[in-house]
From TrEMBL:
The keyword Nuclease does not apply. The keyword Lipoprotein does not apply. This is MFS transporter. Gene3D superfamilies: MFS general substrate transporter like domains. Keywords: Membrane, Transmembrane, Transmembrane helix. The chain crosses the membrane at residues 21-43, 49-70, 82-105, 214-234, 254-272, 343-366, 372-395. InterPro entries: MFS, MFS_trans_sf.
Length: 409
């Protein structure tokens, strides 16, 4: 087996890879900042967590509706032509939110301003599309690239909330949102300026069905919904459990450990060379994720120790990245030619919907039963994902038909 760093060194030796990755990371970091910074800013200025939560929930709902449409435009007209104007609208929405909060504008203006940020393009999907274009004939290198992208997701969602809370808490309430807006604009400008690595627009050569109707895609999207519920429930229940133990300030670092475990596992997984096909690996990855999620449940219910819970979350996170990497690989393979951004954005939309659902169910369980028992919600959601993957059957059999739609990548 090659050294873990060698696979990534070869990856970033490709012309233009480092430049678009730098822009990608700058633009992606705000994705983990916006929700937290908006809640801190609105709750701090308006003294209402209910209003802050409602504004963020509206933004997530708007994203679920708008993001696939933006991705479809990117597939049809190219990344630079669509992503930059769409980002400008999102930036104006973020700045409007700051001004409305600062000026004491009516509450409805906060909803409108934050909803405008839903035009933010799926930077992770665009970056994966570039790798798929550059590494079309090298499945092993594409596996490494997808692993890096998943690790980058975990890193940004680990650092983003911490950075947002720090800036808003130590400087001024609007600092987190303002910094996120500036990072998004700068990163997207740098990313879209790298035209040499931008995938060409491929007009459909015949009738093109929506990605969600492609063979195998309904199963993948359903699994994304269930896995999103895992993430949403895990976050809310951990916050509630830490608060119940009198260590509410430790909730952020504890959750960061879960993301850290996933990030590290993702990088190691990318350096490996799996011998089985993604279709065969997929249910095993979900099964491992389900089994490891039992560790936080056991730590919370049997020990009550926040330290042991943190260790359990670190270990349980190690199955997250391999599962998501395999999931995105299958989404790429099943998405019809010329609609890759749309297909991957649909997967992200499924995750967002699942996060909202998991947050609601996890919050109910933590309040009406106990935060410790609430850790059973992510276990159940992962088990549902496993059941879907296994009973659908056979992603491998569907994959034979799917391959004729998307072609070898």
């Amino acid at each position: 087996m090659p050294r873990p760093t060698s696979a990534y060194r070869r990856l970033f030796a490709l012309p233009g890879a480092r430049a678009f990755t730098a822009g990608n990371l700058l633009a992606r970091l705000p994705m983990g900042m916006f929700s937290v910074s908006a809640v801190v800013m609105i709750a701090g200025e308006r003294d209402s967590y209910a209003l802050a939560g409602a504004v963020v929930a509206t933004g997530l709902a708007a994203t679920a509706l708008v993001a696939p449409w933006i991705a479809r435009l990117i597939d049809r007209h190219g990344q630079a032509r669509v992503a930059l104007p769409a980002t400008l609208v999102a930036v104006l929405g973020g700045l409007s939110l700051i001004l409305c909060v600062r000026a004491g504008a009516p509450d409805w203006t906060l909803f409108a301003a934050y909803a405008a940020t839903a035009t933010t393009p799926n930077i992770g999907g665009m970056s994966r599309a570039r790798w798929a274009h550059l590494l079309n004939d090298d499945p092993a290198a594409l596996h490494t690239a997808n692993s890096f992208e998943q690790a980058a997701d975990e890193l940004c969602f680990m650092l983003g909330p911490v950075l947002a809370a720090f800036l808003s808490g130590t400087l001024f309430p609007e600092a987190g949102t303002l910094t996120g807006v500036l990072l998004l604009a700068t990163g997207m400008a740098l990313f879209t300026a790298q035209r040499s690595t931008e995938p060409p627009v491929r007009p459909p050569t015949g009738p093109s069905h929506p990605p969600y109707r492609a063979p195998g895609m309904p199963t993948l999207l359903a699994v994304c919904l269930a896995m999103g519920a895992v993430f949403g429930a895990l976050e809310v229940v951990t916050l509630a459990h830490a608060d119940a133990l009198g260590h509410s300030t430790a909730a952020g670092p504890v959750l960061a450990l879960q993301a850290a475990g996933s990030c590290a596992a993702g990088l190691l997984y990318g350096a490996a060379r799996p011998t089985r096909s993604p279709e065969r690996r997929y249910p095993w990855c979900i099964a491992a994720m389900t089994a490891l999620l039992a560790l936080p449940l056991l730590a919370a219910t049997l020990t009550g120790s926040l330290l042991l819970l943190a260790a359990a979350l670190l270990v349980s996170g190690m199955a997250t990245a391999p599962t998501m990497i395999t999931n995105m690989t299958l989404v790429q393979r099943r998405t019809p030619e010329g609609r890759l951004n749309e297909g991957m954005t649909l997967a992200v939309t499924g995750l967002l919907g699942g996060i909202a659902l998991g947050s609601a169910v996890g919050g109910w369980a933590a309040e009406h039963m106990s935060p410790a028992v609430g850790y059973g919600v992510p276990v159940c959601a992962a088990a549902v994902a496993l059941l879907i993957a296994v009973t659908a059957g056979a992603l491998g059999r569907q994959g034979v038909a799917g391959a004729s739609v998307s072609g070898a990548r």
